[in-house]
């Protein structure tokens, strides 16, 4: 029996356990960044690979669905004269973030306890503990399951910053917003405006295309991404575009009291429901009722009040800007509210997803994707852009769709490489002469940390790294293959930490810079678990190999590879067993030539002749 279990979530917490590193202490690193720091200090640890897996994804998603759908009918109390659905959808999105965190942590803790049978937990103390913190989850599990707890001697200080809801910042935001509204009225100069939700996710690329079809046009961004701030300012000074730098969350007192009362009534209904209904909110022996009520009455209350204030500001923008058309790349929070206002005011508004959407036959992944679609694809806009045949199939399977479907083809993703650059030239520029002569396998994934976890349809970060390491071991068996790993740094996984988590080998390189479409053009095969990159690859007529060693998920139903059976040529392959990966790559290398690739039927994935902008006329006529 182990003397104690210690769970470490972040690298900075390693300092708190230096007095407990003994042979009978089991340390569980919940994120690779923590594992990297433990390895650097020579401290033995385990990660979550053996503690989560198929059952972890399945059980957390089932319980999350049960709780969310039980509460959903009570959210109808959250509404405004012109907006109702935005509150419900936004509440659920932000509620599921901590809910999935609590459930996944409890599952991992429970599995670790059953395997190691510890006598106690050593809990790392923090100066900024909140109700959804890991320490609170461990404390509740210990109390419910009769396990002793001990607290670390050293306290970890989590950095805090000036919050955007401080009175000073709110006041300044309100002043700047009012000034910009007046400024816009002066500089508009009778130009036709189209309003864009944000300048993120390649929206400026769409603006360039729209500008060729709108006479005397004036693009207006409702929000600006931090990294594009300087560029938007320069454009404003030149009179090319206009950007609202801030959307105030300010609410006049008479409106604030009214909505606050409605939210409090809704919270009362939820609390009564949790206490009196037969809804099972217990997981791994822990009753989540107090977790849910506290988060709803504090964090979510503030979030909904902010959204209410933002909706008041958006209404003012619509009155002053009076846009000819509205374009948005998501439908979360103000994104959903903007669409709902367009829908009710009959303003031509188009929702253009920046994500991937494919229909699922199994109930769990289907539920997860349907829920996710509400914040990115299936909103309440008058129109929705259908960029791929798969997106069209997905939306037609939804129970409720407010928007009219417009087949546009890709608008903000899957951009083709310019014709003057041949694929071979791009390959040599990206990989150098020695690697460019090999066949290039591109790996691109979208893992989710526990703080933003979405079960089943995405890998955990540990699974992501483990699956890449398995791929490295397979690729290095072939001298004529090269693995290009496309990586996007995350909050708790830097490029340096990621590289330190990978196996040493000369068969691969890690790339985090440069246009992704160039990597697609330079590659022969994409490997991924679940990501928009799958549909982007198919738009480029690049074959895809979906790899899930747990055998639970296929983003698109592919040709399932079997090392013992006969394999057929396909645009999409699926490897659902770790033992099948090496023979799958060998079969692909020996059989799947460029000639075969050109002969494959890509119509299932790609719209033909969708480079025109005739869909703009549909928005003008049908709204």
Structure, explained:
The chain is an alpha/beta fold and 623 residues long. It has helices at 32-40, 53-71, 85-116, 134-145, 167-187, 203-211, 229-237, 253-276, 289-321, 334-345, 363-373, 389-396, 423-436, 461-475, 495-501, 516-521, 532-539, 581-591, 594-599, 615-622, and strands spanning 4-8, 25-29, 120-126, 148-156, 192-198, 217-223, 242-243, 282-283, 286-287, 325-328, 349-351, 383-386, 404-407, 439-444, 481-486, 508-511, 525-528, 544-547, 559-560, 572-575. It is built from 20 helices and 20 strands. The strands form five sheets. The chain has a seven-stranded parallel sheet with strand order 7-6-5-10-11-12-13, with helices on both faces. The chain has a seven-stranded parallel sheet with strand order 16-15-14-17-18-20-19, sandwiched between helices. Strands 1-2 form a two-stranded parallel sheet. Helix 4 (134-145) links the parallel strand 3 and strand 4 (148-156). Helix 1 (32-40) packs across helix 15, helix 2 packs antiparallel against helix 3 (85-116) and helix 3 (85-116) packs antiparallel against helix 9. The protein is globular and about 75 Å long. The model has no long low-confidence stretch (mean pLDDT 92).
Task: Work out the helix count.
Answer: 20
Oligomer: single chain
What structural class should be given to the helix and strand makeup? alpha/beta
Question: How far apart, in Å, are the first and last alpha carbons?
Answer: 68 Å
CATH class of the domain at 423-599: Alpha Beta
Mean pLDDT metric: 92
Q: Provide the low-confidence segments as ranges.
A: none
Helix content: 40-55%
Query: Quick one: biggest sheet?
Result: 7 strands, parallel
CATH topology of the domain at 423-599: Rossmann fold
Shape: globular
Spell out the CATH superfamily of the domain at 423-599.
Glycogen Phosphorylase B
Strand content: 5-15%
Gyration radius, in Å: 26 Å
* DSSP strand count: 20
Strand order of the largest sheet: 7-6-5-10-11-12-13
The CATH architecture of the domain at 423-599 is 3-Layer(aba) Sandwich
């Amino acid at each position: 029996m182990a003397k104690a279990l210690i769970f470490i979530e972040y690298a900075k917490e390693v300092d708190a356990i230096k007095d407990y590193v003994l042979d009978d202490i089991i340390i569980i690193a919940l994120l690779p960044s923590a594992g990297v720091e433990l390895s650097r200090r020579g401290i033995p640890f385990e990660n979550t690979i053996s503690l989560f897996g198929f059952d972890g994804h399945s059980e957390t998603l089932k319980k999350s669905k049960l709780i969310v759908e039980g509460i959903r009918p009570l959210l109808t109390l959250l509404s405004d004269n012109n907006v109702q659905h935005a509150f419900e959808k936004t509440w659920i999105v932000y509620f599921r973030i901590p809910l999935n965190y609590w459930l996944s942590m409890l599952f991992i803790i429970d599995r670790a306890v059953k395997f190691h049978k510890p006598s106690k937990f050593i809990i790392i103390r923090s100066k900024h503990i909140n109700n959804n913190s890991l320490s609170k989850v461990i404390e509740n599990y210990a109390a419910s399951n009769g396990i002793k707890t001990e607290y670390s001697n050293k306290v970890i200080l989590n950095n805090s910053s000036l919050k955007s809801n401080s009175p000073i910042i709110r006041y300044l935001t309100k002043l700047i917003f009012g000034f910009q509204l007046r400024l816009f009225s002066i500089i508009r100069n009778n130009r036709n405006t189209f309003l864009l939700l944000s300048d993120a996710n390649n929206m400026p690329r769409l603006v360039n295309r729209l500008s060729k079809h709108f006479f005397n046009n004036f693009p207006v961004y409702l929000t600006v991404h931090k990294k594009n701030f300087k560029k938007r300012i320069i454009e404003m000074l030149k009179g090319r575009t206009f950007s609202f730098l801030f959307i105030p969350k300010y609410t006049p007192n008479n409106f604030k009291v009214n909505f606050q009362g409605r939210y409090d009534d809704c919270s009362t209904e939820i609390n009564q429901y949790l206490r009196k209904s037969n809804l099972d909110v217990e997981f791994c022996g822990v009753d989540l009722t107090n977790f849910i009520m506290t988060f709803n009455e504090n964090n979510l209350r503030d979030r909904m009040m902010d959204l209410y204030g933002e909706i008041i500001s958006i209404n003012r923008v619509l009155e002053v800007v009076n846009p000819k058309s509205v374009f948005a790349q998501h439908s979360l929070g103000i994104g959903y509210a903007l669409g709902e206002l367009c829908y009710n005011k009959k303003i031509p508004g188009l929702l253009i997803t920046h994500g991937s959407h494919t229909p699922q036959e199994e109930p769990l992944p289907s539920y997860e994707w349907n829920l996710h679609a509400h914040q990115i694809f299936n909103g309440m806009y008058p129109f929705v852009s259908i960029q791929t045949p798969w997106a069209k199939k997905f939306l037609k399977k939804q129970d409720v769709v407010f928007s009219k479907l417009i087949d546009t083809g890709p608008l903000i993703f899957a951009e083709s490489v310019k014709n003057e650059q041949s694929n071979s030239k791009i390959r040599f520029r990206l990989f150098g002469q020695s690697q460019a002569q090999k066949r290039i396998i591109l790996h691109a994934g979208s893992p989710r940390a526990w703080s933003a976890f979405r079960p089943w349809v995405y890998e955990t970060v540990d699974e992501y790294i483990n699956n890449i390491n398995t791929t490295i071991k397979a690729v290095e068996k072939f001298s004529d293959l090269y693995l290009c790993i496309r990586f996007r740094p995350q909050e708790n996984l830097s490029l340096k930490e990621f590289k330190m988590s990978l196996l040493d080998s000369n068969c691969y390189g890690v790339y985090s810079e440069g246009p992704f479409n160039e990597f697609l053009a330079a590659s022969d095969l994409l490997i991924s678990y679940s990501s928009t990159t799958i549909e982007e690859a198919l738009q480029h007529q690049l074959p895809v190999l979906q790899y899930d060693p747990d055998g639970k998920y296929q983003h698109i139903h592919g040709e399932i590879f079997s090392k013992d059976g006969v394999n057929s040529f396909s645009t999409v392959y699926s490897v659902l067993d770790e033992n099948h990966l090496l023979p799958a790559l060998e079969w692909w290398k020996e059989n799947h030539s460029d000639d075969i690739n050109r002969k494959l039927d890509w119509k299932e994935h790609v719209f033909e002749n969708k480079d025109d902008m005739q869909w703009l006329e549909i928005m003008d006529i049908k709204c």
